[in-house]
Amino acid sequence: MAKSGPLLSLAAGVMPDFSPQQTVAAASASGWPAVGIWYDPETWTPATKIEIRDRIADAGLVALDIEVIWLKPGVDDPAHFAAIDAGAAVGARNVLVVSSEPDPARTTEKLARLSAHASASGMRVCLEFAAFTTVGNIQSALTILDAAGCEDVGLLIDPLHLARTGGSPGDLTAIDPHRFPYAQFCDAPASGPPPSDVPAIIHEALDLRLMPGAGALPLTELLAVLPRDTPLSVELRSAALRDGYPDPVERARTLLAATQRWLR
């Protein structure tokens, strides 16, 4: 495991075919220093919480984030607050939030309530933007964060979503560094599906990401403008990675090695 540089976390999205417990076990066995936790309200039980908490503690891992809270139209979803409570119980630092709420004002209000709940447990809510959400670019995300009035709400940067929504690393230079408690990391071709082809954009995000260095995203420039040693959640959702490495430990080990090679 690297002794310097950013904290690297195995994102939950790398392991959609395995349980959170298996993801934690794979991260531990393959040398990752941190891991992300997937929260499914239908399958999460008190036993899940205890097993994940104990595995993380025994392995000395950092639980970098828990995901995903997906805001929808209507009243607050109790499962969203339960996700924060689950994250707090296993020691997660951050909770990932995306939105399909069409009204920016309601998104802002919901985000503020979630942030207040998370802050009570020492966690930070982090808003992620993407072309297939109603927070469709970095400018929209910043408008919501400013309106929420919550200094602790983070802005989660995914290099793929940044590129596919017309953004660039330079857009980060004017943002308060405190907004970036962590970032996601992956590679992809320089250009992707047209903005109008939302199904293709989703397909790329879920199945076609590339190992760091195998694409052409401006990863070096992105790391240069993020605060030094910002933790990186390596969000490499890839059908090729899943098919090529059906064993969770081998998948995790291969991804960690590729990421460390690129960072060196």
Number of DSSP helices?
10
Along the chain, the helix and strand elements come as EHEHEHEHEHEHEHHEHH
* Number of beta-strand segments: 8
User: Given the helix and strand composition, which structural class is it?
Assistant: alpha/beta
Mean pLDDT metric: 96
Shape: globular
Can you tell me about this structure?
With 264 residues, this protein is α/β, with parallel strands linked by helices. It has an eight-stranded parallel sheet. The protein is globular. The model has no long low-confidence stretch (mean pLDDT 96).
Topology:
Elements: E1 8-10, H1 20-30, E2 34-38, H2 46-59, E3 62-71, H3 78-90, E4 94-99, H4 104-119, E5 124-128, H5 138-148, E6 154-156, H6 159-164, E7 183-185, H7 198-207, H8 219-225, E8 232-234, H9 239-244, H10 248-263
Parallel strand pairs: 1-2, 1-8, 2-3, 3-4, 4-5, 5-6, 7-8
Helix pairs in contact: 1-2, 1-10, 4-5
